[in-house]
Amino acid sequence: MKKLVEQHAFDAFRALAGRRGQPGARLIEALAEAASEQAEGPEGWAPEVARRFGLPAAAGLGPATFFADLAVPHGQRHVRVCGATACFAAQGGRHLPAIEDALGVTADGDLNGESDVSLQSVRCLGYCYAGPACLDGEIPCVGPDVAAQVAGRVRPSAPPIPAADATGEPVVLAGIVAGEAPWRTWTETVGRHSPEQVRSEVAASGLRGRGGAGFPVAAKWTAAGGSPETVVIANGDEGDPGSYADRLLMEVDPARVLEGLALACFACGARRG
């Protein structure tokens, strides 16, 4: 992973953080660097990293224990296995002990001293549609035979993200950009309806947020519209069936995501997003 990062001369996110970033942005980078140099858990090094930024120990321990890649000591070969809902349901969780047996190490951060292999259970790797899944370093291993892939008995493989079907237009992909003109809904809506009408239509649909509270979207938009200045922000989420679709939509049909953001701006009077 370190060699892969070093090959890229320009990192847009780092450049942006350098110009506009707050100390917290640089803190995460410093924590990642410290984690790559340590063999112990974050309790031993994260507080000191935070102090270098003039922050309390909790500011370092929080992200260092929350982000999976920072929390567990890594071996020379580090395998991350998905334990989130979709991958667990694919085989009833049996893929995890199978991978543990294949590697001879448990998914708790301990290293296999003979081969310097580590195994880590994480929440989502983006293969909810084809799990169970794991990442062997940066190599995806996906499918019912994932343990055999990790063991080297089967070539590692990951199915491509479904984007087209030569047999016709599947219902689940109806309306993709390749099948209809993008921004058609935007043109029809803005030309014929007011923001209030859009909010009423969304309210009638019963659309709710994907957060734990399931707050009605129309109520959110109405409240946002009463603010002096409203900015619409898209939060791409992951980890469970339904929310993973955010990534699938962004990769396969980005115009639909942008169109939805534009409609949200229109509905709540935002001029930026």
UniProtKB/TrEMBL annotation:
<dbReference type="Pfam" id="PF01257">
    <property type="entry name" value="2Fe-2S_thioredx"/>
</dbReference>
<dbReference type="InterPro" id="IPR037225">
    <property type="entry name" value="Nuo51_FMN-bd_sf"/>
</dbReference>
<dbReference type="InterPro" id="IPR011538">
    <property type="entry name" value="Nuo51_FMN-bd"/>
</dbReference>
<dbReference type="Pfam" id="PF01512">
    <property type="entry name" value="Complex1_51K"/>
</dbReference>
<protein>
    <submittedName>
        <fullName>Protein disulfide oxidoreductase</fullName>
    </submittedName>
</protein>
<feature type="domain" description="NADH-ubiquinone oxidoreductase 51kDa subunit FMN-binding">
    <location>
        <begin position="202"/>
        <end position="273"/>
    </location>
</feature>
<dbReference type="InterPro" id="IPR036249">
    <property type="entry name" value="Thioredoxin-like_sf"/>
</dbReference>
